[in-house]
Amino acid sequence: MGTIIRISKSKTPIPRTSFPSTTSSSISSTDTVNASHEFKITGYESSKGMGVGKYIASESFTVGGHTWAIYFYPDGKSPEDNSTYVSLFIALASDATDVRALFELSLMDQSGKGRHKVHTHFGRVLDAGPYTLKYRGSMWGYKRFLRRTVLETSDYLKDDCLLVKCTVGVVKSCTEGPQIFSISSPPSDISQHFGHLLESGELTDLTLEVDGEMFRAHKLVLAARSPVFKAQLFGPMKDNNTDCIKVQEIKAPVFKALLYFIYWDKVPDMEELMGLSQQWASTLMSQHLLAAADQYGIERLRFLCETKLCEEVAINTVATTLALAEQHHCFQLKSVCLKFVAEPENLKAVMQSDGFDYLTQSCPCVITELLEYVARIREHSVTSYGRGTGTGTDVNLDGSGPDGRRVRQRIY
């Protein structure tokens, strides 16, 4: 007989390979960026009767990267309320979508007792969370904020004035991962190198004659910074002599400041560069520099000059600045100037200035816009212009007073 041999196969376990374990982490945080704005409304009695749905708006203010404005409706917002209530709203005034925020609207007690009328999201549990404003013009507030009869017999109204305080808390969320390293990089110093290149005069290949004064510069630098210089030096219609160019319509001190910006990428200190110490002289230089920047297509300098002129609006320079804004299409500057001139305490003095004569002759269309602007203020603002209130603000189109005499105001 044969022998049967059974062979048993045992399974040898395969050893498991061990891999190192790694863990990553991140943190999501949500918080609110809060800020408040106070809005003083004067002449409450005069504002009544302006019409249901018509409002008085505050200056715009910024919170959390968005622009906001307070709207007060003296005759209410809804026709069905028949002007029984005043309405109060906060509105999103910038282009944005789905902005989440918390709000607080307060009508301030002006008796000092602290009994303010407050509607707030802060410090409360909100079932639906923060309020979401879907688009520009979206509002939060109350159509029936307070009965007018109650308001007019309360301590909220004092000397025909109301004081509204609005707090906005914009919801911001961010996610942060672990910081692996921390190396502080030095700030860019490329403008320093170009600035020193101008100061040293090394490797210059161009002479610019301005009002009899000579300036040395580098063609490639000018071409890189200005499309006008680029066309003038390297374009198909370039000048015959590109080694020496005569600059027209710009004074030497202004061109010196322009050249400084081209190399240093910053507006020069006028007092240090030109020895100008008085405010009006600095404003005059900014006006000329804006015109030069527009002439040579240097947009960043044009914007910086426009911003500076907005900050330096004054009675003795606003008319010429307004003419400049019109001629060089500086719409923000033009708006600031129109608003300043239309103020009752400024209008007469500006009309009696030499600059206003220049504005009338050079930009007559702006005078029409100014009159329309003043008319809109009369219609929508609680402040009245030219109603014979004895405030000294009544003026005629030629700048004369109520008696027809034109008296030039001396401005120091």
From TrEMBL:
Superkingdom of the organism of origin: Eukaryota
Pathway: Protein modification; protein ubiquitination
Domain MATH: 34-168
Stretches the record annotates as Disordered: 1-30
Residues that span the membrane, as ranges: none
Record's function text: May act as a substrate-specific adapter of an E3 ubiquitin-protein ligase complex (CUL3-RBX1-BTB) which mediates the ubiquitination and subsequent proteasomal degradation of target proteins.
Protein name: BTB domain-containing protein
Species this chain originates from: Lactuca sativa (Garden lettuce)
